Amino acid sequence: MAWALVGLVCAAVPALLFRANLRRYLPPPAPALEKRPAVSVLIPARNEEASIGGALEAVLGSLGVELEVLVLDDGSSDRTGEVVADFARRDPRVRLEVAPALPAGWCGKQHACAVLAERAGAELLVFVDADVRLAPEGLARAVGFLEASGAALVSGFPRQETGTWLERLLIPLMHFLLLGFLPLGRMRRLRHPAYGAGCGQLFLARRAAYRASGGHGAIRGSLHDGLKLPRAFRQAGFSTDLFDATGVASCRMYRSAAEVWRGLSKNATEGVAAPSTILPFTALLMLGQVLPPALLVAGAAGALMGAGGVTMPAVGLAALGTALAYAPRLAAAVRFRQPLSGALLHPLAIFVFLLLQWSALARQIAGRPAGWKGRSYAPRPSLGG
């Protein structure tokens, strides 16, 4: 009975916050801009031959904005540069840039974004990953949200396309963790860095604030720009905001289970797997998202078998806790066009997610580097902000 009550409480907290946040986490409205804003779309690209063409086609189809598109070939060993150069020959809005040598202490992506920002010409900087596909009105809508919010930096989570079983299981957890544990109302009222959050796939920043905050240079050693860049802006006194980018852009981050594991592991110790947060997160997620369904199954099985010790109040609490655990995932599956299979396997998803977090922390403690895009990054102390 006591454990069922604990599970109910731990499930209720993110469920209620998720429900409240859904009313605040809104898609930007249709563009209503008086003039076509000038934007610099900045795409860091390292070995993105398979993705960069699609990204450029989508960006160049943008409506309602004046575009320049800068792609930084960051030491690619494939045909990334050739693909971009072909686009540049056909469309003067596209410019191919070549990355200088990676300085010591820098993460490759942060250095690439910092170089692109220096070479951009517009006052609005849009950082987009090479696997993101912008909708035709996506940029105009994002700019409209930036102007309406008054923030210096805004970000949105694109619609996440998934294929393999581990993608379907883990990738949709992004929305659950964001909306279940970050109070958006307080985020918009306060500028404390702890409330900073975003998605590294899509950022829109005002150039002056970007420079004043240090931009990607302020997080040069980080592998987690989605978390650290908004916190750097807030540390400098600027506000940041979030919008629902489901209809603004789409993204297929990973293409295999191995890529999912490596990709989510590489920056885990700067987020949930940080030594200061992993224990409370593990307790809250296990007690609220895994325990209630486990107790419900055990109670139902015990009742069917006539086992003693099974009480209907305990089973009722476990059932309510299970409903609260599943409610955000099912709502997210509808709202953000996520696979239903991942939502139905929610307790398993949480368990695998936590296993990944602890594995990443163990890797850091053992001093093993994180590898991504052919580069190796030695473990470093958790970055502040």
Give me the secondary-structure topology.
Elements: H1 2-22, E1 38-45, H2 52-60, E2 66-73, H3 80-90, E3 94-98, H4 108-119, E4 124-128, E5 132-134, H5 138-149, E6 153-160, H6 165-170, H7 173-181, H8 184-189, E7 202-206, H9 207-213, H10 225-235, E8 240-251, H11 257-265, H12 278-305, H13 312-335, H14 340-344, H15 346-366, E9 370-372, E10 375-377
Parallel strand pairs: 1-2, 1-4, 2-3, 6-8
Antiparallel strand pairs: 4-7, 5-8, 6-7, 9-10
Helix pairs in contact: 1-7, 1-12, 1-13, 9-10, 12-13, 12-15
Structure write-up:
This protein is an alpha/beta fold and 385 residues long. The chain folds into 2 domains: 2-19 and 274-377, no CATH class; 23-257, Alpha-Beta Complex (Spore Coat Polysaccharide Biosynthesis Protein SpsA, Chain A), CATH 3.90.550. The protein is 50% helix and 16% strand. It has 15 helices and 10 strands. The chain has helices at residues 2-22, 52-60, 80-90, 108-119, 138-149, 165-170, 173-181, 184-189, 207-213, 225-235, 257-265, 278-305, 312-335, 340-344, 346-366; strands at 38-45, 66-73, 94-98, 124-128, 132-134, 153-160, 202-206, 240-251, 370-372, 375-377. The strands form 2 sheets. It has an 8-stranded mixed sheet, with helices on both faces. A two-stranded antiparallel ribbon has the order 9-10. Strand 2 (66-73), helix 3 and strand 3 (94-98) form a beta-alpha-beta unit. The longest helix is centred in the last third of the chain and has 28 residues, at 278-305. It starts with a helix and ends in an 8-residue tail after the last strand. The mean pLDDT is 93.
